[in-house]
Amino acid sequence: MSNVFDNTDTLTNALDTAMPDRRWLSILETFTVTGVADASQLQLATALNRDKLSRALERLCNTFLEERPVINKLERTIARPGQVKRPPNIYLLAEGGAKLLREQGYSVRACELKEDTPILHALCMLSIHLAARRSGLPIETDINVSYGEGRVFRPDHRIQIGDGRFLIMEVEQAANFKLLPRIKESIANRQAFFSSEYSQGYLPEVRMVFNVRPGSDMRRTLAVWEAAIKDLRDKTGEGLSYRIMVTPLETFLSAPEWEEKTSERFKNLELDSEQRFPRIGDDGEPQALAVRQPEKGDLLKDIAILEALSQEFSRMFGVVEKRPDSTLFKLVAAIYQASYGPMNAAKLPSWVGIPTHSLYLYKEFLRMHAGLRSRLKVAMHQRQGRMFWNQSNIILRMNQVAREFLNYFNWTPSMLNIYATPYSGQFGNSYSFHTSLLSFPFSYDEKRYLESALEWVLWALFEYADDLGIGHPEFW
User: Fold this and answer.
1) pLDDT digit string (tens) for 51-76?
2) Which of 71, 310, 327, 476 is deepest in the core (most CB within 10 A)?
């Protein structure tokens, strides 16, 4: 069939002819939630097998209404925090598809999201929406909830649970203290709502799922939220009028919990905040908390002793804490652009061939830093001849070598969200590195360029190990 149509009627008839089961509509209906969906979510929502879905998506991507596409395929994938598997393809509702859906009775508009973080947030919201639908629960996503005179708050989700009340759910991304003002405003807005008569019929709780890598990233994010709760408590002298229950997104999706009583997988964020920042009474002493207290010792006294020891340690040894060296970004960009070109005129890897210019600079850098080259050799070849090289061991070794390289600049792979994958990257071979600099204050183009430069510099340690004087790894 022709792929350009002048009106919705002819387009609808053509799609029905090509797909009599109307799977095209079930695919487009998935976009009515947030305007964006990835391939795995579309497969879950439509119950289509992978091949049938792939063919339908390809047809919709190449179909136009009044010369405007029905859907667009994002030219890049976006890694989820802590995800090891290759991220699925992402699709966005385009103006042609939005108009077609409006003719079907839906109130939608084309997706205008462009940056990774808001796209990822929308995908996470869709995952929650689909999980509620699979559980048979009515759910509204990204709606305005009015209360009081002209007051509105906009939760990610409002779900009607088994007892008839509404549950508010939010999706949150990684946070740092730069976001503290926004988080304090969010907590205060919900405090006002749950303190009002309009919250009757709602479970007095906001259930938050965090799309954050487990471990240090999650701890840092929760610390910001706990500090925001402390700020509200200090200003009002009162606790929250609602509970904030938190859990990682993947933990929640593995077994969604919708009823009032939650399992130990959820943490009460206000109780954690009180443990971290105790309330101070009129006598200047911490008030008793309705949580388990330490059985031994006075923790405040212990903390004072540790602080004194820290001062004495600094005075005696003059130790300066190592800070991540941001010149790493300038270094990898300088090496990478020698063969691949500067950011605004970068060549595709397939056009470059063997990047001799970049390899020359890289080898010279390692020659000037013989200590780093020695550490890389040790990490690359340890237990040589005694290892069984399966995929897991290769990935482990690649991550060990990457850690040695990054530690030299006082970075860790987790700080830069870098990890090895068993998939072909943009530079070839069956193994590659993936990085995401979402939390760094670069422009989108700078992020993409620096991500490519970091990935190439680490991958080249294996692909061109002989050229760089490290020695070819036996598993490569």
Assistant:
1) 999 999 999 999 999 999 999 999 99
2) 71
Burial class (CB in 10 A: 0-12, 13-18, 19+), 227: middle
- Does pLDDT of 233 surpass 80? yes
Cα dihedral sign for 122, 125, 131, 137?
negative
Q: Exposure string (b/e) for 411-449, b if CB count within 10 Å is 16 or more?
A: bebeebbbbbbeeebebeeebbbbbbbbeeeeeeeebbb
The whole-angstrom distance between residue 322's C-alpha and the CA centroid of its chain comes to 27
Residue found under tokens 């976009």: 31
Please say whether the beta carbons of 455 and 427 come within 8 A: yes
Chain segment 135-185, per-residue pLDDT in tens = 999 999 999 998 878 888 899 999 999 889 999 999 999 988 888 889 999
Q: Which of 78, 84, 86 is nearest to 121 (CA)?
A: 78
pLDDT band of residue 314 (cuts 50, 70, 90) is low
Give Cβ neighbours of residue 421 (< 8 Å, ≥ 6 apart): 84, 86, 395, 431, 432, 433, 434
Average pLDDT over residues 324-343: 89
Beta bridge partners of 167: 159
Proportion of the chain above pLDDT 70, given as a percent: 87
239 burial (CB, 10 Å; 0-12 / 13-18 / 19+) is: middle
Could you give the CA distance from residue 242 to residue 196 in angstroms, rounded to a whole number? 11
Beta bridge partners of 208: 170, 246
